[in-house]
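ARCHIVE CARD
Drawer: 12
Card no.: 0347
Subject: one protein chain, sequence and derived structure
Cross-reference: see card 0346
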Amino acid sequence: MSIVAIYGFEGRFDGPEEHEYRYPEVGAVHKCMLFLAQESGAELWDLAQSECQKFGFKETWSMSFGLLKPEVLNTDGYRKFAAYYEEALEDGSSLAIYPKS
């Protein structure tokens, strides 16, 4: 069974790539959370970076890593991430974007 890792990062959106989603403005800088399905709990930086590029973020920095424990998705603070978790399991990855303030 796949697990889902979360790679937090900041990046500049360079334009649409492989994934279809609601794109941010080209050139804008955002904080993001990449939900990535993987077979192990290892930090897979190259795979995460490659997936960020598929979402149009070619320039990224401050990347962090953590494993998502599915049981937290039943709590009030994390319930909103359940859709990202499910999408990552189904499609391999999912991306949450937050405007940088």
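Annotation on reverse: The chain has one domain: 3-99. The mean pLDDT is 91.
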